[in-house]
Amino acid sequence: MQMHNEIADNAIIEQVLKGDRNAFGTLVERYQSFVFTIALRYVKGREDAEELAQDIFVKAYRSLADFKGTSKFSTWLYTITTTTSISFLRKKKLEVHSLDNEKVFAVADNFDGGMNANVIEQKSRQNMVNAAIRLLSPDDAQVITLFYKGEQTLEEIAQVMGKEPNAVKVQLHRARTRLKEKMQQHFAAEVRDL
Amino acid sequence: MNNRHEAFDPADDAAMELRIWEYIDGLSTDAERSEIEQLLVEHAAWREKYKELLSVHQMLDATELEQPSMRFTRNVMDEIARLQIAPATKAYIDKKIIWGIGAFFVTVIVGFLVYGLSQIDWSAGASGTSKMLGVDFTEVDYSQVFNNNFVNVFIMLNITLGLILLDLYLTQRRKTWQQA
Q: A53 to chain B: which residues are within 8 Å by CB?
């Protein structure tokens, strides 16, 4: 994800608040990949994730007057992303991939079979990592995505997830350990090839 | 340089992993960094673990974000074209009103307490609890009390407030549970 100028974000928000609705499109373009990726951490299908990501941007637009500029716009947007994703799941009663859920292992095994061929075919390290991340719980997947791709500090991630920075640090550590285990468990051959 | 392979127990291994992650993430202090660099030079087990974790870190760093469909921005813009930005929350929730409501309830409670306490006959001696309060509860006609509309409305109001508070408490507990 490219670095964004926060002043530019705030300037765009000011424009939108003054009535330039189209300026909001720049913010959508800028953050759509990230919001969509986080949405995909919560729901399985791309269609659902796209619907969810759309809801998130609509909610952000409606609440834009509440953005005080005390935090980065991205932190504020990711907080909306988290709360909306949880509400969306509750509303749609979609199956959450959770490590506590025994079903996840069956899903993971099926997924592994499907993705293995893809990974071998494409020799793509990224596909493998993304596939492994999808096997994590939404919380674990989110903390990894926010840390590596969201340009967020531990304190900002803590704000987004409503946790203490120390708890986020521990969760990030555990999430990476679990990711390593998933990669070894489901993509052992690919990990050796890398 | 010492290249021996030390046998770490699982607890030490987990601690080592945490310290190396902090080092890789740039969260260690200067003193910790120096110490870890020293450990990396001296211990093969630390070097191996560092190499392994660094490889995971680099893989995660290199992953790309998922892309939504080409029409995504257009869909969002079409959706918001029909909407207006909501007024800022602080514009319609005045803290003075919230404090006013709070003050009203506190005043009502204090008023009831003062009134109740002033009705007690403190000088009355008694052998039992009911006598101590200057009231013989066995002789109270409760049907007279609960026939009063004011009392019934008051009780209903309290039950409603109690349910609202219970709902708030359960919502808070659910949030805490989800975060855990």
A: 68, 72
| CA distance linking residue A5 with residue B118, whole number of Å | 67
The reply to whether A145 and A183 lie within a common domain is yes
Task: Pick the more confident residue, B138 or B80.
Answer: B80
Q: Is B57 exposed, middle or buried (0-12, 13-18, 19+ CB in 10 A)?
A: middle
> What are the pLDDT digits (tens) for A123-141?
467 778 888 888 899 889 9
Give the separation between CA B153 and CA A6, rounded to whole angstroms. 55
Q: Which residues of A touch B83 (CB under 8 A)?
A: 58, 61-62
Single residue among A92, A113, A133 that ends a domain in this structure: A92
Interface test mutation site (partner A, options B76, B78, B174, max chain A beta carbons within 10 A): B76
| Partners of residue B60 in chain A, C-beta under 8 Å | 129, 144, 148, 176, 179
In terms of pLDDT, which residue wins out, A187 or A70?
Answer: A70
Per-residue pLDDT at B124: 63
- Helix residue ranges, H only, A93-164: 103-122, 125-134, 138-149, 154-161
Which residues in chain B are contacts of A34 at CB distance < 8 A? 65
Q: Which of A68, A92, A116 is the last residue of a domain?
A: A92
Whether ipTM tops 0.85, in short, is no
Number of structural domains (chain A) is 2
Q: Domain with A121 in it: what CATH number?
A: 1.10.10.10
pLDDT at A69: 85
Q: Please check whether residues A67 and A146 belong to one and the same domain.
A: no
Nearest to B76 among A28, A154, A180 (CB): A28
Cβ of A176 within 8 Å of Cβ of B66? The answer is no
Considering only alpha carbons, which residue of chain A is nearest residue B58? A148
Confidence of residue B81 (pLDDT cuts 50, 70, 90): very high
Q: Is the pLDDT of residue A53 over 90?
A: yes
Q: Which of A14, A24, A96, A88 is nearest to A56 (CA)?
A: A88
List the single residue in B55, B65, B79 with the smallest CB-CB distance to A1: B65
CATH number, domain containing residue A24: 1.10.1740.10
One domain, residues A45 and A16: yes
The percent of residues above 90 in pLDDT, for chain B, comes to 27
Residue A52 lies in a domain: yes
- Per the CB < 8 Å rule, is A126 touching B61? no
- Helix A125-134 × helix A165-186 angle, to 10°: 120
Domain span at residue A26? 6-92
